[in-house]
Amino acid sequence: MAAQYTPEYLAALRRGGDRFEQAFDFWMDTQNETDRMFMPGLAERVFTKEEADPEEVQRRELDVAEAAGLAAKAVQVTGSYMVVQGLRGPVDPISNWRNMTMPKAFLTPGEVRATCAAIRGRLEGLELDAQAGQEHGLPTFGPFALHKIIWTAAAPHWTSHQYRVAVREAGEALNLHWKGNYSAPTWTTRCSGGRR
Questions:
Q1: Residue 6, φ and ψ in degrees, nearest 5
Q2: Residue 149: other Cβ atoms inside 10 A
Q3: Closest by Cα among 165, 162, 80 to 116
Q4: What CA–CA distance (Å, rounded) separates 20 from 63?
Q5: What ranges do the domains of the chain cover?
Q6: Is the CB of residue 45 less than 8 Å from the CB of residue 107?
Q7: pTM more than 0.85
């Protein structure tokens, strides 16, 4: 099943990503960001500033959470997921943005900002493709309708028109996924004194 997205829909997703990024940056004004190497994976990546008004912080957090709804759809369309060692499957940095405020945080503000930039760039490319397809009456193939493991691996290459590389990367990702989830069964053979 191929999904078809119009240029208008992709532009709306891009605006949703921009809205999330603005809300996120506005919320980050109330936070102190830790150094990347400060106890990675053990401590929070951000701490609320002492002078920040708790009600204002909460209002800004809710704005970010609301904006994350549409922006998370953009992650799905563009395949801008992250792979985190120790976690099963790709992670959506936009939906999980609040992780950086918790102990054992695996996300940093820089990774969320980088995801926003990747979404913006990939959506612009998909928008151009959709416009060109409409102008020439070409059918639209939407690889983003594929399973997220496949699309996560293929998206960076597909959106830059490196289709062969995208297919190879998708195949390798699927192979690694199956190898990681299903190992070969261990069979024991019994010998019965040479008799069958």
A1: -80, 160
A2: 19
A3: 80
A4: 8
A5: 7-144
A6: yes
A7: no
